[in-house]
Write a structure and sequence with these properties.
Blueprint: E1 5-10, E2 13-18, H1 29-45, E3 49-54, E4 58-60, H2 65-70, H3 76-87, E5 92-96, E6 99-101, H4 103-109, E7 113-117, E8 121-123, H5 137-143, H6 146-155, E9 159-160, H7 161-167, E10 172-174, H8 177-190, H9 193-205, H10 211-226, H11 229-239
Helix pairs in contact: 1-3, 4-5
Length: 251
């Protein structure tokens, strides 16, 4: 059986490449299971970041409807993938160089950073086949105000990369996705490992906190980090006008 998700570890970054082109990288049981294994590999390697990319003209076409017709519905493996992308300590980057439809938008939206080609199109077509974009509404509505995505969810209309950026669904719209992802990876590597992990965590945690509780928790975290070994290395490098070496903190 051919591999649907290729794994590559390079310079502390795990790249997961979806390569199930016969069905436009649809979310088959095999592809989802191999994504799960890929995240396991990234965690085991202590990767600094995870990049999710694709081969072929589509990033992901959504659910594998043939499998959904042949087998009882079980969304739990897909839910687990979305949660793992959102919850892993390491930053996740979706590198999108092709069309994204339905569940593929949820997969993309579960990543911290989403880099898409200017020619990319999107559509949430679930209502056309008699279902709702139920599961993927969770990551999507964490990024996008409901009123700004309502028409796409209710009508299945196609929208472009500029609109996706305007509503907050994606973070970068570029002509060269590979180059932009490389720039982001360089930025992540330039940061201290724990500092990056804590920043990802606070981006998720702080918006839902009471203001006083947020200030209290973040003051504690700030004091801890300023007193920690990464800050000592980082501030010494700043004084000496050089780039800090985070090697001792990797893993």
């Amino acid at each position: 059986m051919p591999e649907f998700v290729h794994q590559q570890l390079s310079d502390g970054v795990v790249t997961l490449t979806m390569d199930s082109q016969h069905n436009r990288n649809a979310l088959s049981r095999q592809l989802v299971a191999e994504l799960d294994s890929g995240i396991d590999a990234a965690e085991a390697a202590g990767a600094r970041a995870i990049v999710l990319r694709h081969e072929g003209p589509a990033f992901c076409a959504g659910a594998d409807l043939k499998e959904r017709t042949d087998q009882p519905a079980d969304s739990s493996p897909f839910v687990s993938i979305l949660e793992r992308l959102m919850d892993t300590e390491r930053p996740t980057i979706a590198a999108v160089d092709g069309a994204v439809r339905a569940g593929g938008i949820g997969l993309m939206a579960s990543c911290d950073l989403v880099v898409v080609n200017t020619a990319t199109t999107f559509a949430l077509t679930e209502v056309w086949i008699g279902v709702a974009a139920a599961i993927i509404s969770v990551p999507i509505l964490r990024r996008v105000p409901a009123g700004k995505i309502a028409a796409a969810l209710l009508t299945g209309e196609v929208f472009d990369a500029a609109e996706a950026r305007a509503i907050g669904l994606v973070t970068h719209v570029v002509d060269d996705v590979t180059a932009q992802v490389a720039t982001l990876i360089d930025g992540i590597r330039a940061g201290a490992p724990r500092a990056v992990r804590e920043t990802k965590a606070l981006l998720d945690r702080v918006p839902g906190m009471d203001r006083s509780a947020a200030f209290g928790a973040m003051a504690t975290l700030s004091d801890e980090l300023f007193s920690g070994p990464e800050a000592a290395v980082g501030m010494a490098a700043f004084r000496e006008k050089r780039r800090p070496d985070w090697t001792e903190f990797d893993g």
